[in-house]
């Protein structure tokens, strides 16, 4: 009885270890997985590693990625993503930061208003601005600026030269370009003859810090998957060009050539190689099945935009696939899928449901946010819509929203109340 019990425990521990290894590999990015496979292949004679074909196409079978990085300027995107990975431990904040990274133009400035980025990330302005504050501390100083003045102020603050006069001059730098020195001196509370001295303090600042980097378009993460729209609907496939691969070399040496200990080591190494190959196969299968469910459930989102997202959670996908929600979380974390329009994070396919009251059909939070923003943006400024009026319009559009939900989302979008919007319109 004791013998049987001991064998059973050992088998359980082995299965648990294999499962943990598979889950760890599932959660790895393509780059992390490549590094892991290179390490495993270097210590296991039964493993042969093949770099992703996208790397091979860039320089042949002997392409040295490390040497290439050293010989060329890094891309702006790669530079900021490295800093994002170190600066943000919260996955939600990291994804918001990546949204900001996607909005960078070659100068290093943001190409979109912060409000637009916050809406795309589905977060309130205060949280988006908190993330932006961290991003504006990245090196080189001046990245993630809203405009030229913002860029120079960030750098002046970093160099501890941001006096009141310097900040005022930077904020009104257009007057300097137009040679309106008297007007600029009046704003800075100084004499026109003092302006050249203030200018001397900021002359060395870099108005476009992003130009120090390579500007070949580089996605935040290489897409692990590809979604295509065909005549019969959507199809999803793994992106083989960015997927590292291994080959298991079978043991062809006769057992008689080695002692008992050496044979045991060979069998162990071969078993580990086969287990790793199986874990890779499971990783690809889980990624593909997960993405297929997401694309099938959110096809309207892919075709028509964020307003057409339907409520979908990790638990929904896990239930359909017969997996645990934590497995789905690992599968979608940091993953991108290439669509005919652009690359999207798999996290973008999820949306929480909004309570619509008894009998109402659930709608996604993103749909509700988009609706509120659109109707307020299209209103007559002299006769703005009340929250109750927005509720009525939503119901006519097939969305059942509670008044408190409208008020909450209006606040999230940074939209004032109808009374405040009317006052602003009259004052303008």
Automatic annotation (TrEMBL):
One of its GO terms (cellular component) is DNA-directed RNA polymerase complex. This is RNA polymerase sigma-54 factor. The lineage of its organism: Bacteria, Pseudomonadati, Pseudomonadota, Alphaproteobacteria, Rhodobacterales. InterPro entries: RNA_pol_sigma_54, RNA_pol_sigma_54_core-bd, RNA_pol_sigma_54_DNA-bd, RpoN_core-bd_sf. Gene3D superfamilies: Homeodomain-like (1.10.10.60), RNA polymerase sigma-54 factor, core-binding domain (1.10.10.1330). GO terms for biological process: DNA-templated transcription initiation. Residues 68-250 form the RNA polymerase sigma factor 54 core-binding domain. Residues 265-423 form the RNA polymerase sigma factor 54 DNA-binding domain. Belongs to the sigma-54 factor family. Pfam families: Sigma54_AID, Sigma54_CBD, Sigma54_DBD. Keywords: DNA-binding, DNA-directed RNA polymerase, Nucleotidyltransferase, Sigma factor, Transcription, Transcription regulation, Transferase. It comes from Rhodobacter maris. Sigma factors are initiation factors that promote the attachment of RNA polymerase to specific initiation sites and are then released. Coiled coil: none annotated. One of its GO terms (molecular function) is nucleotidyltransferase activity.
């Amino acid at each position: 009885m004791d013998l049987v019990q001991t064998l059973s425990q050992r088998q359980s521990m082995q299965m648990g270890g294999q499962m943990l290894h598979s889950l760890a590999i599932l959660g790895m990015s393509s780059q992390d997985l490549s590094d892991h496979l290179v390490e495993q292949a270097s210590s296991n004679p039964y493993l042969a590693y093949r770099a992703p074909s996208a790397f091979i196409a860039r320089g042949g079978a002997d392409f040295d990625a490390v040497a290439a990085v050293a010989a060329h300027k890094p891309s702006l995107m790669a530079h900021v993503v490295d800093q994002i990975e170190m600066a943000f431990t919260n996955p939600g904040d990291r994804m918001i930061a990546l949204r900001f990274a996607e909005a960078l133009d070659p100068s290093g400035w943001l190409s979109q208003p912060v409000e637009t980025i916050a809406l795309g990330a589905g977060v309130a302005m205060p949280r988006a601005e908190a993330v932006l504050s961290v991003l504006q501390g990245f090196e080189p100083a001046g990245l993630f600026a809203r405009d030229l003045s913002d860029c120079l102020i960030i750098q002046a603050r970093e160099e501890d030269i941001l006096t009141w006069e310097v900040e005022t001059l930077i904020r009104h730098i257009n007057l300097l370009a137009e040679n309106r020195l008297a007007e600029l001196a009046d704003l800075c509370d100084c004499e026109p003859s003092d302006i050249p001295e203030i200018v001397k303090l900021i002359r060395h600042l870099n108005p476009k810090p992003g130009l120090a980097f390579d500007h070949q378009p580089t996605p935040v993460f290489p897409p692990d998957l590809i979604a295509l729209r065909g005549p019969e609907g959507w199809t999803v496939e793994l992106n083989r060009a960015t997927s590292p691969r291994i080959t298991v070399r079978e043991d062809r040496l006769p057992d008689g050539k080695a002692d008992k200990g050496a044979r045991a080591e060979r069998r162990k190494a071969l078993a580990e190689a086969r287990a790793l190959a199986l874990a890779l196969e499971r990783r690809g299968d889980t990624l593909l099945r997960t993405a297929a469910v997401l694309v099938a459930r959110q096809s309207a989102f892919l075709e028509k935009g964020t307003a057409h997202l339907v409520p979908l959670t990790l638990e929904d996908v896990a239930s359909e696939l017969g997996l645990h929600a934590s497995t789905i979380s690992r599968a979608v974390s940091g993953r991108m899928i290439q669509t005919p329009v652009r690359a999207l994070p798999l996290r973008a396919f999820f949306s929480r449901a909004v309570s619509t009251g008894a009998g109402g059909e659930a709608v996604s939070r993103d749909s509700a946010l988009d609706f509120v923003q659109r109707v307020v943006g299209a209103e007559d400024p002299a006769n703005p819509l009340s929250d109750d009026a927005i509720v009525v319009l939503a119901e006519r559009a097939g969305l059942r929203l509670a008044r408190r939900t409208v008020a909450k989302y209006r606040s999230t979008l940074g939209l004032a109340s109808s009374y405040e919007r009317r006052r602003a319109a009259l004052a303008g």
